[in-house]
Design a protein that fits this description.
Blueprint: E1 3-6, E2 10-11, E3 30-35, H1 41-48, E4 51-52, E5 59-62, H2 67-75, E6 80-85, H3 102-106, H4 109-115, E7 129-133, E8 147-154, E9 157-160, H5 169-178, E10 196-200, E11 207-209, H6 210-222, E12 227-230, E13 232-233, H7 238-249, E14 253-257, E15 275-281, E16 297-302, E17 306-309, E18 315-319, H8 321-338, H9 344-353, E19 355-356, E20 371-372
Parallel strand pairs: 7-10, 7-12, 8-10, 12-14, 14-15, 15-16
Antiparallel strand pairs: 1-11, 1-13, 2-18, 3-5, 3-6, 4-5, 8-9, 17-18, 19-20
Helix pairs in contact: 4-8, 5-8, 6-7, 8-9
């Protein structure tokens, strides 16, 4: 049985816990819709269930599936004027540690937020991001309310409902990708409107089996993850590749850490053709000296001294391609919102076209297509 490990270089001393205010609640699982003029609204609404908003002829309906998909379905019903997922509105507060997140400035994250329409009021919930890792601190102030589904795999069997993080790696990765943004607490995630689907495949020691990683990949994809983040690495495996291929067929963009072994090393699942392999850069835009270099590297993102959530509260800086991968995963979730007709292939192409070429001209083993930058999104390709 092969074993997988987290792709983490190390960490600096943790920052103190910040207790400012609870994160805003997401209006997940609800759709708002209105009947067309001339429709007997009382009977129409009664037939479709839900409750009416006070003072408005707008119906609020709890749905079991994806609010985006359910809104699309309801919109096609006879007599419906419009239907939309219920968004969320929050006080416009700054995340106090955002100024300490050099990586967000490096990728021009605020420009990506604007392109994705996150400045709209209300903003829509982003596409789900699946994270296969050591789990997550579900009670963390910047992640509480962000977890849409939670599970753990043991001996290749996934059991929903429990995913607490005994190591801290998964919590850090989750915060980079999708910590609540604009809630006046802690840090800002790259895709702060995206719900998280968590499957714990690695132990409190940061390692796990091929079977558990494969089972978790399949599970997060089955739960509807449009992006799957894999900040882990190990040997090649038929089971692992089969899980990656199945997730890709389900419509997910798959992102993995390139590895921290230095030049010419190859790590799986990053090396599979279905996966975006992400290398790490430092604040000067140079390849981090620990970051793997090989023909499979596709994109580079910030990966040194990255500030994110710490298990059991607070914030901590860590370095590794593990930290670079969720930056690209968050970017992929935003690109789903930016593109008019997103598919995994078009999202991947848009990410590649948003890379600033550095190093050897064209794609190279150190940087892939280059350093990811939202300032380039939509300018080519």
């Amino acid at each position: 049985m092969f074993h997988f490990r987290r792709a983490l270089l190390g960490s600096l001393a943790p920052l103190p816990l910040l207790l400012i205010s609870p994160p805003h609640a997401l209006a997940e699982g609800r759709v708002l819709f209105q009947a067309k003029p001339g429709i007997a609204r009382a009977a129409f609404f009664h037939a479709h269930g839900g409750t009416t908003l006070t003072g408005l002829s707008v119906r609020r309906l709890r749905v079991a599936g994806s609010p985006v998909a359910e809104a699309r379905r309801i919109r096609m019903l006879p007599g419906v004027a419009w239907a939309e997922p219920e968004g969320h509105i929050h006080a416009l507060k700054l995340d106090p540690l955002q100024s300490s997140q050099w990586a967000l400035g490096a990728i021009h994250a605020e420009q990506g937020w604007a392109l994705a329409g996150l400045s709209r009021v209300p903003s829509l919930i982003g596409v789900p991001i699946g994270i296969v890792d050591t789990g997550v601190d579900t009670k963390h102030e910047d992640l509480r309310g962000r977890i849409a589904a939670c599970a753990a795999s043991t001996a290749g069997r996934v059991k929903p409902g429990v995913c607490e993080d005994g190591d801290g790696h998964g919590t850090h990765v989750a915060g980079i990708a999708a910590a609540a943004t604009g809630n006046g607490v802690g840090i800002a995630g790259v895709a702060g409107d995206s719900p998280l689907i968590i499957c714990r495949a690695l132990s409190a020691k940061g390692s796990g089996s091929t079977g558990d990683v494969a089972a978790c990949i399949a599970w997060v994809a089955a739960q509807g993850a449009k992006v799957v983040n894999l900040s882990l690495g190990g040997p090649d495996s038929h089971a692992l590749h089969a899980a990656v291929q199945a997730a890709a067929r389900s419509g997910a963009v798959i992102v993995a850490a390139a590895g921290n072994s230095g030049p010419s090393e190859v790590s799986w699942p990053a090396a599979y053709p279905e996966v975006i392999s992400v290398a790490a850069s430092d604040p000067n835009g140079h390849r981090a000296d620990f970051s793997n270099t090989n023909r499979d590297v596709e994109l580079t993102a910030p990966g040194t001294n990255i500030l994110s959530c710490k298990a059991h509260g607070g914030y901590v800086r860590m370095s590794g391609t593990s930290m670079a991968a969720p930056i690209i995963s968050g970017a992929a979730a935003l690109v789903w919102s930016i593109l008019s007709r997103p598919t995994p292939a078009s999202v991947r192409a848009a990410l590649d076209h948003s890379a600033r070429d550095v190093g050897t001209r064209g794609r190279d083993a150190s940087y892939g297509f280059g350093l990811f930058d939202f300032a380039l999104t939509g300018q080519s390709g």
